[in-house]
Write a structure and sequence with these properties.
14 helices; Amidase signature (AS) enzymes; alpha+beta; eleven-stranded mixed beta sheet; two-stranded antiparallel sheet
Length: 491
C-alpha cells in the first residue's frame, strides 16, 4: 500500500477539515484520497471489523464527479472530497439498515436519511457503513450478522457502542469522518474508548428522518445524531451541515446555532464532577481526567470542583433509566410486552435492578410517563439556571477505560471491573444520562492515555443549543492536552 504523506505523516490521520482543504488546494484528488482509505480498509479492517459494508464503485463515481467539480473551479462544499462512513443503522439507499438484527436483514431503505443527503450535498464521499451492537443497545459492538468490532488500541477490548464501528474506524484512520447516534452515550462512549472527538447534539437539532425503524413516523425520545472525528473542527463543520429542520418542520422555522462567545482560556468558568458517591469511576480514569483538568486550570480556565445544578442526581438517574427504557421499548413485540407486564407485576417495589427498570419502563402508563417527563422539564430549568453561572460541566462519560470483550449472557447481567471490584456495566449509564435526560449537548474531547495505556476523554456538557460552544471548548481541551493521537501500528 502506498502511503500518502502530509506534513504530519500519514494523511489518513488528517482531520476532515484538513482533507477538504487539501482537495480544494489540489494537493490531492478526491479519487486518489478515496482509494487511499479503501486500501487502508483492506489492510487494517480485517483485524478490527469496524467497517462492515463497502460501496466502492458508487463511491468512486462520486469521487470522480467531485474531482471534475474541482477541475472546473466549481464551488465546493465544506466536506468536498472527504471519504467517510456512516453508522449501519442510518439509511443509505441501496444498503441494508439491520441494526445487527437478522429480522431486518432485508431492510433496504428506499431513500437516504436526511443527514446523509446533507453530507453528500456538502461534498462528502460516503463509501461504507460501520458496525453496531444488536439493536444499538450495548457498549460493546457485536451482532449475529456482522460479528465483533475490536478497539484499535487493544483488539482484546471493546471499541464502545453503539457507534463502536464508527469510532474504531476514525481512530484507525480508515475513514475521514463518521456519523453516529446517541441515546446512552453511543457517540460519547466510543469516542472515549477510542481516543477521538465526538458530539452529542441538543435534542431535536439534527433531523431523525432515515434513522428509525421501518414504519416509524415519530421521533424517539432522547435519541440524537452526531459526528465523530479526529478534531473538534470536524465536529463543528459536520454539525453545521446536518443540523436544521427537515420535512414539514422546515416549512415554518429555521436554525441559527449561536457561535462560541468565548475563546481565551481565562474567559471560561467550568464546574467539574469526576466522581459520584453512588457510581464508582475507576481511579485509572479519574487520575487522567483530573490531570487534564489541572492542565486546563494552568492554562487559565477557572475551575470549580463543587458547583452543581440544583438537581438530585440519583432522582435524575431514575428518570433517565425510566425514560430511556420506555423509549427503547416502545416497539417491542406483543409477546415481549406481555412478558414485561408479568415481570413488572412480579417485582417487589424495592427491586431497583436494571431488569426491573426495563419491565417497568416498557409498560409504564402514559400518565406515569407524563409525570416523569414533567419532572424532567423541571430539571431542565435547573440546568438552564446553572449555565447562567458556569459555562460547562466537565465529567466522565464512562466508569473506566475500554474493557475486555464479554459476550456472555445479556447486558443487564454483565459486569466490568472498577477499582478492583466487579460492577454492573449498566451503572455507567449514570454518566450518559446527565446530559441526555435534559436534552443538553455534550462533546467528548480526548485527553491522552490513562495509566493502563488506553485512551480516555473528558465530557463537556453545555447549555441547550450551545453545541458550538461545547465543541469550541473541546477544541481548547485538545490544544491543552494534546488532542487526537493515532493508535500504534496503523501509521
Amino acid at each position: 500500500m502506498t502511503t500518502v504523506q502530509s506534513q504530519r505523516g500519514e494523511i489518513a490521520f488528517d482531520s476532515a477539515v484538513e482533507l477538504a482543504a487539501r482537495v480544494r488546494e489540489r494537493e490531492i484528488g478526491c479519487l486518489e484520497l478515496l482509494d487511499h482509505y479503501l486500501a487502508r480498509v483492506e489492510k487494517y479492517n480485517p483485524s478490527l471489523n469496524a467497517i462492515i459494508l463497502l460501496q466502492e464503485d458508487r463511491a468512486r463515481a462520486a469521487a470522480r464527479k467531485a474531482d471534475a467539480m474541482v477541475a472546473r473551479g466549481d464551488a465546493c462544499g465544506p466536506l468536498h472530497g472527504v471519504p467517510m462512513t456512516i453508522k449501519e443503522s442510518i439509511d443509505w439507499e441501496g444498503t441494508p439498515s439491520t441494526r445487527g438484527n437478522p429480522v431486518y436483514r432485508e431492510n433496504f431503505p428506499a431513500r437516504n436519511a436526511v443527514m446523509v443527503d446533507r453530507l453528500e450535498a456538502a461534498g462528502a464521499v460516503i463509501f461504507g457503513k460501520s458496525n453496531v451492537p444488536l439493536m444499538l443497545q450495548d457498549w460493546q459492538t457485536f451482532n449475529e450478522i456482522h460479528g465483533t468490532t475490536n478497539n484499535p488500541w487493544d483488539v482484546t477490548r471493546v471499541p464502545g457502542g453503539s457507534s463502536g464501528g464508527s469510532a474504531a474506524a476514525v481512530a484507525a484512520g480508515l475513514t475521514g469522518l463518521e456519523l453516529g447516534t446517541d441515546i446512552g452515550a453511543s457517540v460519547r462512549n466510543p469516542a472515549h474508548y477510542c481516543g477521538i472527538f465526538g458530539h452529542k447534539p441538543t435534542y431535536g437539532l439534527v433531523p431523525w428522518q432515515g434513522a428509525q425503524l421501518p414504519g416509524s413516523f415519530a421521533p424517539s425520545d432522547l435519541v440524537v445524531f452526531g459526528p465523530l472525528g479526529r478534531s473538534a473542527q470536524d465536529l463543528d463543520v459536520a454539525l453545521k451541515v446536518i443540523a436544521g429542520p427537515a420535512g414539514i418542520d422546515a416549512e415554518g422555522w429555521t436554525l441559527s446555532l449561536p457561535a462560541p462567545r468565548k475563546r481565551s482560556p481565562k474567559d471560561f468558568r467550568v464546574a467539574v464532577m469526576l466522581e459520584h458517591p453512588a457510581f464508582d469511576v475507576d481511579a485509572v480514569l479519574t487520575g487522567k481526567l483530573a490531570q487534564a483538568v489541572d492542565e486546563l486550570a494552568r492554562a487559565g480556565v477557572s475551575v470549580d470542583h463543587g458547583a452543581r445544578p440544583c438537581v438530585d442526581f440519583l432522582r435524575a438517574n431514575h428518570l433517565y433509566l425510566m425514560l430511556l427504557r420506555s423509549a427503547t421499548g416502545a416497539r417491542v413485540s406483543d409477546e415481549a410486552y406481555a412478558r414485561h407486564v408479568q415481570g413488572a407485576a412480579a417485582r417487589d417495589a424495592s427491586d431497583n435492578s436494571y431488569r426491573a427498570y426495563i419491565d417497568r419502563a416498557v409498560t409504564v402508563s402514559h400518565r406515569e410517563w407524563w409525570n416523569l417527563h414533567n419532572e424532567r422539564e423541571g430539571m431542565r430549568l435547573a440546568w438552564a439556571e446553572f449555565f447562567t453561572r458556569y459555562d460547562f460541566l466537565l465529567c466522565p462519560t464512562a466508569a473506566s477505560t475500554a474493557f475486555p470483550h464479554d459476550h456472555a449472557g445479556e447486558r443487564p447481567e454483565r459486569t466490568i471491573q472498577v477499582n478492583g471490584v466487579r460492577q454492573p456495566t449498566t451503572d455507567q449509564l449514570f454518566w450518559a444520562g446527565l446530559s441526555t435526560l435534559v436534552n443538553l449537548p455534550s462533546t467528548m474531547a480526548p485527553v491522552g492515555l490513562a495509566a493502563d495505556g488506553l485512551p480516555c476523554g473528558l465530557q463537556v456538557v453545555g447549555a441547550q443549543m450551545q453545541d458550538r460552544a461545547c465543541i469550541g471548548f473541546a477544541k481548547l481541551v485538545g490544544e491543552v492536552t494534546g488532542g487526537f493521537a493515532p493508535p500504534p501500528g496503523y501509521a
